[in-house]
Every structure is written in structure tokens, then in C-alpha cells.
Batch of 4 targets.
Target 1
Amino acid sequence: MQIRTLEIGVGLFLLAGILALLLLALRVSGLSYGANGDTYKLYAHFDNIAGLTVRAKVTMAGVTIGKVTAIDLDRDSYTGRVTMEVEKRVDNLPADSTASILTAGLLGEKYIGISVGGDEELLKDGGTIRDTQSALVLEDLIGKFLLNTVNKESK
């Protein structure tokens, strides 16, 4: 009988561990972030979106304030158009705010960081952030560095 209770205890412990790993996987994937429904849409156009995905975080001062809901190609300007849902509690973003595609760590996930401007006019639902900074592509930097090194050696 004692062995049976030990087996049940180990089974429950294993089940709790599997549930904890499942919860961790959901939180890391971004599926658990659920805005409370009170959101508004903002748009931003980037020259290079490299690595940004739908459900990526939108942050301001390190605090998550929304998520990316769609990424499309703007057929008129040939730039990437990002649609973001931002929480209504952050409804005081100035119109001259800046959106940048940032990387968590050296090779981590991409997300959008918003820097606040100083304009008195505010962004409204359906508004567009005009001032953007595209993603920094590590391969491009390495290529430029190598090309620059080769050019210096050939002179």
C-alpha cells in the first residue's frame, strides 16, 4: 500500500511539472497575452521588418502595451505595414511618437518599441506612426564589416 501512494505522489508531481512546462511554453510564445478588449489600432510603415512576427509585443518604456496583429506589404509605398493593437489606457500617445523594431538580447525575439514624442496632437484609433526605425539585420552588418575590411586591404 505504501508503494502505491508513492507511485501516485510521483505521478502527481510529474503531472504538475508537465503543466508548468506547458504554461511556460504558452507564455513564451505570446499566446497568453490577452488584451482586455479595450484596444485601438495604430499603423506604422517600416523599410525592413526582418524577423518581426504577428503577436510580437508592443512596448513603451519596457512595459507591454499591446501586440502586433498584422504585417502586410503596402502596395503604394512598397514598405512593410504593421498593424498594432494598443491598450486604451495608453490613449495619450503624441502624433510624433517613434516606433522602432528592437531585439530582445543579441539574437532574441523582435518587438516594437514606442518612444514618446512631444507633440500636443494625439494618435487616434486608425492613426499612423510616421517616424519609424527599421529592424537591424545582423547579416547586413557583418557583410558591411567584411566588405569594408576587404576594401581596406586591397588599397
Target 2
Amino acid sequence: MKDLVSIITPSYNSAEFIEETIQSVLNQTYENWEWLITDDLSKDNTVEIIRKYNDPRIKLQVLEKNGGAGNARNNSLERANGRYIAFLDSDDLWYPEYLETMITFLQQNNAELAYCNYSRCDEHTMEPILKDFEADKIVTFSNLLKTCRLAPVSTIYDTKRVGKFFFPVKSKREDHVMWLNLLKVIPKGYPVQKTLAKYRMRENSVSRKKKNIIKDQYLVYKDFMGFSTLKSLYYTANWALNGFLKYSKIFN
């Protein structure tokens, strides 16, 4: 039997988009998955929409108190039983072959972590508004300090090889901290040079407001990596420059 995959999803006020996300998981060619959705006390009808689906692989838990995306992801991770951990936010999409392709790659290449290309799309039309993000480099702790090439929608890791990695709940850059902690343990993460996912670029997305999170990124290095002030400023400057380049090449 194929190894179980645990899909980790936080949801919060996702009613507008979550049915598309659900359908993209149900369409996966790799069928041995469990989907741990943790709702962060949504105020819309997100929970009602999820509960319409009777697939026993979909395991919803609703929190009693709003605690943020990192806390919700940790809740799902604690409940996860799969060998492989995959992340999917409640407004993003996978192509049907995503899980099959990524897991096959991990197995054939004896890899602990892999990431793939993904489309960066308008939040309403899901048409590309930037060039696809390309998984074109082997990821290491060293180069991940300067720019976060790993996105939840496009990255899978093997818990049998590395264990589970949780998110710091006191950081607004919790995904970057988690990936850095993981890359301290494994030497490399490998690229899968295929576009297998769609990232919905929300107008109010924190990740797009680069000027507003410079301080949060600085704290990734200063507080969570334990770097000196000078070293933290150096990596923050590199991250800011790479972030500008990542989002500046808009299609004409």
C-alpha cells in the first residue's frame, strides 16, 4: 500500500475559495491521504462548507479561540499520522498530479524534502499575474537565510526521515522559521521543475506587504536563529532585495 500523506490546512473566513481548494484535493491521483483542517474560529460559513463533504479522509477541527495560522497548522500537525507532510492553505490549489509527482520524486531520489514550481494567480480569476515561481535550486540552510524559496503550497517532507516540524506561534514569519529549523537537520531540499500548484495572491496578503514585515523578518534572524544584530541586518537586507525581485516581474 502507498504511504499515507497528511495534508495540513489552516482555515479562517475562507468561504469564498475553500470549495475550489477541496475539489483540488479530491481530484488528486494519489488517494492515500488524510486532510487535517483546523478552522481558526471562522466568522463566515467556512465550517459549514467543509462539513458538506462526507469523505472520511477530511478531518476538521474547529478551535475555541483564534490563535493564528501557525497555531492552526500546529494543531493539524499534532493530529497527523502520515509519513509525508504536505501543506495547503485554504485558498490555494493543487494540480491533480501534485501528490503523486512529489512523493514519487522523494522516493526515487531518496530525498527528505522537495518543492516544485507554482503559478502566482489573481485571487478572483486564478489567471497568472506573475511568472511562475520556479523551483530551480537545491535549497540549503545557507541559501534559505537570504530568501525563502519554500512555500507551503509547493513543499512536502518525509517525517520518517526527519520527524515533524512545528511552527513558532510568536512569529508572523512562522513558515520561514519552520523551514530554517528543518534545513538545520537535513542537508538539502530538492527542486521538482514542474508547475503543480496555484498560489492565490490575495490583495490583503501579509506576504505581499513587504515593507510592513521587515521588522518581523529581522526577528526571524535575531530572535529565532540567535544571530547578532549586524548579521540579522545583513540577512534582512538580502531577504528584502530578493523579495522585491520575486514579485516585481509582472506580465505586461
Target 3
Amino acid sequence: MQNSSNQTVKNKGIYLLPNLFTTAGLFSGFYAVIASMNANFEAAAIAIFVAMICDGLDGRVARLTNTQSDFGAEYDSMADMVSFGMAPALLAYNWALADLGKVGWLAAFIYCAGAALRLARFNTQVGVADKRYFQGLASPAAAAVIAGSIWLGNQYSLDGKNISWIAGLITATTGLLMVSNFRYHSFKEIDWRGKVNFIAILLLVGIFVVVSVQPALILCIGFYLYAISGPVITIHTVRKLKVAHIVGDGEQDKEVEENKSSINSGEKP
């Protein structure tokens, strides 16, 4: 009986290492909110990118150390909502959208609601969806589009109020991309524990060097291209674009696979 009791107590514990990275990401997202409220927009944008790094590490650390847990998954979703939902929406609102009145906060709300719906849909599709692709723009990438734009604009001394309508359009569109059915590469098929050619390491070093020269510009361009890649991939893959390929319950995945099968078998579309 004593061993059973000790096992129960042990199972109720929380793994420290992966949740430490999740907490760091949550802290970065919360700091981004506070910094944006104090008009420190560059620091807020950088904090969102730091949250992205922490978010990328917590899951991989959990898998490498075999410390996955239901608590960790739920905690990660809550932290993501703060870091990639609330923080970018408030950052965009405080930087450019406040002067638009209702239109401004509605654009910020569309983004925030899109992030919440994107995270909820992702959680319900774990173990079912194709791991090679995301359905809709991932919330960290969407947050990077907003944060990268504001970071770049702040470096060039651009006043967000002068481009408030453009900022509102980008914010709302990014939110809608998160709840769309556009397919985005997840890069989860990459074996991070496997061996690579020496040239791959040199290329990785080159990427770090290029990003370090103009981090705001390079990151902003990179994530804009990634956001555009979803519609391009979807339109290129399907035979005929339908409403279900843009919004809906994900039935487009079945048609995409059927199209691939017909192409591989030599059938004409």
C-alpha cells in the first residue's frame, strides 16, 4: 500500500525542465504586453521572438528527455495564448491601431480570436493531422509577422499612426490566416538528432551571420514569405480551389491526397 501511495504522489509531480522553458516563454509574452503599454515597442517585439525560441525548445526538450505530460501540453497552450495571441494583438493596437477607434480594436480582436481558435484546433488534431503540414498559419509565425513588422518599423523611426490602416489590414489578415485551411510546412520531418553533412553546418552558420547583420529586416522578410507560402502551396497542390480549401473543417486534406495519388498514377486532372 505504501508503494502505491508513493507512486501516486510521484505521478502528480510536474516535470521541471520543459515547463521551465514554457514559463520563460510566458514571462517573455507578459513582458511584451507591459513593454507595449509603456511604448517600448522594440523591446516588446524582441520579447515575442524570445518567446518563440522558448516555445520551440520546450516541446523538443520534453521529447528528448521523455518528460511529456498532459499538464505540460495544457500549460504550453495557455502560455502560447499569452505570448502569441494577446501580446502581438496589444502590441499592434498600442503601436498603430489605437487611433482607428473601433476598427482598430476589432482588427486586434480578430487576431487574438484567430490565435485562440488556431490553438484550440491544433490541440484537437494532435495525432490525427498530417505532421508534415500545419492547417492554417501557426500562432508563433503569425506573432512573428506582427512583431517583425513593428520591430522593423521602429528601427526606421516609422510612426505606426501614419500607417494605421495598413497595420490594421495586416493584423486582421494574419489572424484570418491562422484559422484558414491553407497548408504550411511544419518542418517536423527534419531529424534534428540525425547526422548531417559538414556543409549543412556551414550553411547554418551562414544563416546566423546573415540574420545578425539586420535581424529585424531579415526576420520580417522571412516570416512574411512563410505567411504567403501557405496560399501558394494550397493553390499549387489542389486541382480546383474551393471555399473548403480556405475555410472549413479541413476536408481539403483528403482532396489534396487524392490529387497527389492521381498525379502519381498518371491520371489527368
Target 4
Amino acid sequence: MSQDPSASSGSVPNYRPVGGHAVLVEFGTTIDKRIHDQVVNLDAALKAAPFQGFVEAIPAYASILVCFDSLVADHRTAEAAIAERLAAEVPETIGAMREVEVCYDPDLAPDLAAVAEASGLSPEDVISAHLSGDYSVFMYGFAPGYAYLAGVPKAIQQPRKPAPIRGIAAGSVLIAGPQCLVSTLTMPTGWWIIGRSPTKILDAASNDRPFLFDVGDAVRFRRISRAEFDARRLA
């Protein structure tokens, strides 16, 4: 997906039928908060006033998949219902502020020095830049609890690595381009590992709230010492 923030804000959505049970509503093709705000607002409007046959909506960076019961609705009626909600006055959705602790000690941040060198900064400058980012949750995907955040400052943005590395620990704080993510499982990644967090993002035992974040939430990172990290991990 393009990362050009100057691209169209996607004021006129494009509708794409998906199978016989869903419509993909596309507002643009970029990682852009203006576009994502439209995704979040449509998601909120559908939750507040679901149309007959509505099943669920799945938001992404620049689009939202609207699923319906094909015995009750079809693509034409779903698109009409979506257009009605887009035309209505919808209050701006404001997400909660979530805090994520992060320790940047070298053994927990194996790529911090490489990001610093590639960015022409010191490791401390990279840390300061990361902490200053304006982050918000744009989507979930790939693995349970993987919340994709936008807002990494341009000064430290790096393309993905040429190849992924296996066995990266859960809680790793990862960046790639304008995106940031806190991993929830031990998995491979081609993103840059610049820290590790003890904050519980995924609670698999919870039926009510398995994920810490909701799409649209704001996120701030708070630096902690190694002693604090170790204590949180043992708690």
C-alpha cells in the first residue's frame, strides 16, 4: 500500500462485491489518517444503525469489509444502506488513549543500532523519535492481537527487511515504514525490532475483551527501565 500522505482523501468511496455476502468499501489506497477516519466513522455508523441483514464490519487501513446475510440482503441493498449512512451526519469517532510500556535495552532491541545507522541518528535519537510518534490503531490482522499502528515519524521510517527472521519474541516492538506493531506471539518478522514491551496486548483467556486496543484508539509508548520490564514480566 502506498504511504504518500498527500494522496486523495478518498471522499467518494468505491464499492467492490466480495463473494455473495460482503461489500468492500474503499476510501483510498494510502496509509493516511484522513482516509482512515472515514473508515472508522462508517464502522461506528453501521454499529449504531445496522441495516437489515448486517452481520459485521471489518475495518482496514483504507477500506472496510461490510458483511451481510445473503438470505436477507444483497450487494445492491447493502451498498444503498452504506451510502445512506455515509450521507448522514455522523459524529466524529474518538478512540480511547492506550499506553504501552517499552524497554529499549540492546538485548531487547536487536535492530535499534541498525535503524539508527540507516537513519543517520544515534540510538537515543531513534528512541526519542519513536516515543514522539502520533500513533493510532488502524487495523487488526495477520495474527491474533496484531494491531497495526500508523504514526512512526518519518525520521526513523525504514523499509521492511529483505527476508524475515524466525523466532522473534512476543512483546517485540516492531517498525516498518510508517507502521508500528507490538507482537503478541513468537513468530517470524521482517520488521525492525527496536524494543520490547511487557504490556499485555492479547488476553486469550478473556471472552469479553481479548484485545487491549480497538480500531481508532490512540496509542502512546512510555519508556521503562530494564528493572521495570523484568518486574512487569514476573507480575
